[in-house]
Structure to design on (611 residues):
């Protein structure tokens, strides 16, 4: 063992610090700027300090109905989160055994992750257009569209969140000790009891991680929503629309509000994960507690 | 993972299930393969309905005809001929689509090279220099958090810094280094590359860190003991062992940048042509077959790059 730290440590530490500053610096700048005074502009220096622009968002005087977009994004994010957690955990369990079509599912997930978003989005939009045309031609001439937040939009978001969920499940089960399940089986537990009382409590912290990924990826999703969401907009789409006409700090205020939701969700999820880990450490083992 | 149980099961299925035969019989009614289908089926259906079938539709529609109002389901190569219009006549000069792809590849290469450099050293620092697990977790989380916030916000965050009256320009003017604000800082290729690096270095850090953390530290000790310098250890031990992470990170960054139209749109002031932007423009003009044809071309090129990269490393083995 060498004494002290090598010189490369300090060089790389400075490099790392510079990277973190690069990551956070610009974001902090807009969070600060969203508290401009009523006369404030898009750049520093600050022209007074106020919550004027944030309040303006909630008054809904802007060009777009941000309140409605906010609720839509929230609803979609929560549904995506639930579906992602359920489907990822189920599929993750399936991958612990060999089954046919295993590699098809695996490669679909990987492909879905790396095929450029605009192509997935365009494909979904074409698919729904063709479905619409079929419905119009054969059943109902006045049919408008089957595209929407919870049809094409939900599907588009899931093609982005499910691969992450599946990969996290792989990571979990790489570390999972199957002897715990064997022990449960030896004690007479049914497969469902084994899952409910042994597997789930152990993997729960990571499952919450999947939920966190599901919600925040959907909440901030833009490229896949762009063609596939239908007539309505999500909050990131509205935000992107604003960037072309930006003149006021209200766009920063909107950015700050969206980030605040993201950070709240991240904090809640990490807090829960931490709590569950502590609980597991405290109650997970009954070693030394005797027979009764 | 061939456990003793598997061997038992092969020898005598009933023995392995244990003495509770009633329950065993009940469980046996649902065969393992049926349970697997039940578990994996829903996710497969989502990918089928919202990824695989849409991809097939992209290919089919790329060969359809169109007019100003609608899709015409009849075979036509118009989507492709419109895309490559004038390409042969203009030779040896590049036509519009050719120029666009060259520019997209150039942006892609720049972003890849920079994110690889930053990502490698950040991951190296976290994996080899940060000794305590708690610090490692904390610092990784610090890098991860910005990834969880909106990309558009992280893009517009550069406006107050790079704009005409932004911090950088006013700082440079005040210190007397320049007389007039620099115009190329924002809404330029420079700002596009900067924003892409800012957004996606994360995708490089995570996989490289993951492969580095798995490197057996005794290999590095052995290299030192055998008299290798720090640089030799890096080139002959660490880089080869971190290669899977480097390839996976590179695939992520390259596919994202190849298909990107949002960052290039916002940070390029809607002025820079790129492969993804062509598709968006065609869709906005309701020329779906042309959009689909461009999507097929983009997909083919992306697929080519990935195939080339995955020849270097077996991705499935690394996950």
């Amino acid at each position: 063992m060498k004494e002290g730290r090598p010189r490369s440590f300090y060089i790389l530490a400075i490099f790392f610090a510079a990277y973190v500053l690069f990551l956070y610096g610009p974001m902090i700048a807009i969070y600060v700027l969203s508290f401009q005074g009523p006369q404030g502009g898009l750049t520093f220096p600050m022209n007074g300090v106020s919550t004027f622009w944030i309040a303006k968002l909630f008054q809904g005087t802007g060009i777009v109905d941000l309140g409605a977009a906010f609720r839509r994004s929230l609803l979609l994010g929560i549904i995506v989160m639930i579906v992602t957690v359920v489907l990822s955990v189920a599929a993750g369990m399936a991958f612990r055994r060999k089954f046919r079509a295993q590699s098809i599912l695996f490669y679909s997930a990987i492909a879905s992750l790396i095929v450029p978003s605009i192509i997935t989005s365009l494909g979904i939009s074409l698919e729904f257009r063709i479905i619409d045309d079929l419905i119009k031609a054969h059943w109902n001439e006045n049919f408008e569209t089957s595209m929407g937040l919870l049809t094409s939009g939900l599907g588009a978001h899931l093609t982005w969140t499910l691969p992450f969920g599946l990969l996290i499940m792989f990571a979990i089960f790489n570390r999972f000790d199957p002897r715990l399940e064997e022990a449960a089986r030896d004690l007479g537990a049914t497969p469902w009891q084994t899952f409910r009382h042994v597997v789930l409590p152990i993997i729960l912290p990571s499952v919450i991680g999947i939920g966190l990924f599901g919600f925040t990826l959907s909440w901030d999703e833009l490229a896949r929503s762009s063609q596939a969401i239908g007539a309505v907009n999500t909050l990131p789409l509205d935000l992107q629309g604003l960037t072309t006409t930006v003149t006021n700090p209200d766009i920063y205020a909107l950015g700050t509000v969206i980030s605040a939701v993201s950070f709240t969700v991240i904090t809640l999820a990490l807090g829960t994960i931490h709590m569950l880990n502590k609980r597991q450490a405290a109650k997970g083992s009954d070693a030394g507690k005797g027979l009764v | 993972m061939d456990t003793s149980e598997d061997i038992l099961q092969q020898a005598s299925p009933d023995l392995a299930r244990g003495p509770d035969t009633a329950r065993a019989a009940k469980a046996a009614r649902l065969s393992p393969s049926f349970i697997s289908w039940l578990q994996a089926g829903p996710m497969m259906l989502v990918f089928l309905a919202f990824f695989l079938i849409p991809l097939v539709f992209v290919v089919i529609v790329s060969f359809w005809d169109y007019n100003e109002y609608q899709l015409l389901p009849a075979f036509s190569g118009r989507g492709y001929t419109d895309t490559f219009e004038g390409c042969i006549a203009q030779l040896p000069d590049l036509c519009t689509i050719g120029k666009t792809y060259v520019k997209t590849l150039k942006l892609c290469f720049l972003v890849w090279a920079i994110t690889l450099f930053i990502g490698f050293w950040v991951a190296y620092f976290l994996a080899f220099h940060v000794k305590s697990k708690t610090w490692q977790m904390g610092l990784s989380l610090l890098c991860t958090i910005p990834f969880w916030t909106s990309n558009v916000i992280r893009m517009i965050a550069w406006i107050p810094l790079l704009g005409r009256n932004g911090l950088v320009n006013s700082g440079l003017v005040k210190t007397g280094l320049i007389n007039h604000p620099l115009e190329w800082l924002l809404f330029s290729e420079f700002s596009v590359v900067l924003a892409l690096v800012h957004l996606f270095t994360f995708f490089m850090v995570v996989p490289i860190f993951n492969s580095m953390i798995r490197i057996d530290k005794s290999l590095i000790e052995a290299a030192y003991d055998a008299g290798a310098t720090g640089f030799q250890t890096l080139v002959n031990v660490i880089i080869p062992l971190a290669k899977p992470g480097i390839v996976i990170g590179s695939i992520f960054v390259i596919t994202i940048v190849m298909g990107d139209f949002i960052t290039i749109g916002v940070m390029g002031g809607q002025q820079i042509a790129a492969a993804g932007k062509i598709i968006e423009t065609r869709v906005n003009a309701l020329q779906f077959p042309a959009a689909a044809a461009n999507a097929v071309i983009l997909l083919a090129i992306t697929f080519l790059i990935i195939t080339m990269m995955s020849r270097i490393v077996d991705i499935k083995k690394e996950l």
